[in-house]
Amino acid sequence: MKKIGNYTARGIVSESETEAGLPQKVPLFDGSFKTGYRVIGFKVWASSYDSSSSPDCIGKLSKNDLGISAAANFFRADDDNQIAWATSAGSSDGGLGFGDSILDKDNLIVEDLYVYVRTTGTNTNAINYLIEMEKYSISDWQGALSMARDRAQE
Known about the structure:
It contains two helices and eight strands, in the order E-H-E-E-E-E-E-E-E-H. With 154 residues, the protein is mainly β. The protein starts with a strand and ends with a helix.
């Protein structure tokens, strides 16, 4: 594998979309098996910090669309589709309360990523996310193997 660049994806997704099984899709697949991405950073934070909102939130990245992601099973290290998890805690006067993030450093994404979020209380505001990745040139067989492995885990 040869590193050929860096890539950042950012956006918003709401918990109501996650509850409906509609995660935010981050399209990465360029039609070639010869490029892949490694996630090297993942952050989530609330989009609103007024006194009426509850800004604590959590997020995860998946290599496949998992459908509905129930709160009770949100963080699952035994699910090989999930490759990154992040938390954020904030308050109306606390600023950006980035929490912890955990990354499976043995990740290689050839196709797409999916962002799921959850918030505390009744907060329905959108949750921000930032994903930092490295882009690699890989061999055809590495790309095909990665895609086959991902499909087997669905």
